[in-house]
Amino acid sequence: MVLVFSDNKNLTFEMLSKASELAKNLNKKVTAVIIGKTDDALAKEYISFGADKVFVAETNLESFKAEEYTDILGNIVKETGAETILIGSNKNGKELAARLGGKLNAGCVIDSNNIYLKDKKLTAERVVYSGNAIAVEQFNSTPAIVTVPSKAFDRLKKDDSRKGDIIKKKIDAEKSTSKILKVQEMKTEGVNVEDAEIIVSCGRGFKNKEDIKLVQELADVLKGKTVGCSRPIAADMKWLPEECWIGLSGHKVKPKLYIAAGISGQIQHIAGMRDSGIIVAINKDPDALIFKSADYGIVGDLYEVLPKLTSAVKEKMG
């Protein structure tokens, strides 16, 4: 059985796509897991996106706690006999996967962007050395645990006619001595960069913080309204918040259109946006690395190019 879990439903939808492919090759079934209060609507959504079964672990937990979630998921793995476990690679998922690996004495690969069978063994690939190489890792035992980052796989087309079983079971986890004192949601403006379909990003080519308005204006006329940036803008100069940071240590994105203005194209940034649909680069240096990853390149001063591009897009879109 291939088991799928994430506390982010959109990430679960994406993992169900790969889980369905693996299950077909293994002649197994796909089970999605919900931990918490029963949510029949969500369970039916998981089935429509590829799950054959949905296991609802009913608990009284009001928020994520790694120790208790590990205990619950470990019990589900043992009960279902799952051999392959896909966990969403967000903050909670990474901690959960590592703990689960220790609890089950199982192998665990973090942040895999490709999963397949080779010589009848589960094989996972992940980016290493700041994007300069791909590690290929193979499991020699089961269960095998793999965490999957957002946008690694495209979700299947929703099929509301699919049928599946919803299993509900009360599972009590062993209480942890740790306590959650406060949970505060991070406030963000506009669309999350990981969910955006159009992103206009800025880099060190900008001379002043106020000049970022040129990027925002282009994003607005493209109706994307989402601004991203490279590491120096968020981490060094603090011109934009870290939720805008795109790169290996920031957010990994997969928009339909990615425009990089004044970004040199170091491998750390490329690792965060390489899977974008169409990449447009704007840089005055014709030898900038960003052009090697771009579908379209504009060699010129961004202070001249961006206003003209914004005007042209505005005219084209009426």
Structure description:
The protein is of the alpha/beta class. The protein has two domains: 2-170, Rossmann fold (3-Layer(aba) Sandwich), CATH 3.40.50.620; 198-316, TPP-binding domain (Rossmann fold). The chain is 31% helix and 24% strand. The strands form three sheets. A seven-stranded parallel beta sheet has the order 5-9-4-1-2-3-10, with helices on both faces. Strands 12-11-13-14-15 form a five-stranded parallel beta sheet. α3 (66-80) crosses α4 (91-104) and α5 (213-221) runs parallel beside α9. The mean pLDDT is 92.
Q: What is the topology?
A:
Blueprint: E1 2-5, H1 9-26, E2 30-35, H2 40-48, E3 53-58, H3 66-80, E4 84-88, H4 91-104, E5 107-109, E6 114-118, E7 121-128, E8 133-138, E9 144-148, E10 165-170, E11 198-202, H5 213-221, E12 227-229, H6 231-236, E13 257-261, H7 267-273, E14 278-283, H8 290-293, E15 296-299, H9 302-316
Parallel strand pairs: 1-2, 1-4, 2-3, 3-10, 4-9, 5-9, 11-12, 11-13, 13-14, 14-15
Antiparallel strand pairs: 6-7, 7-8
Helix pairs in contact: 3-4, 5-9
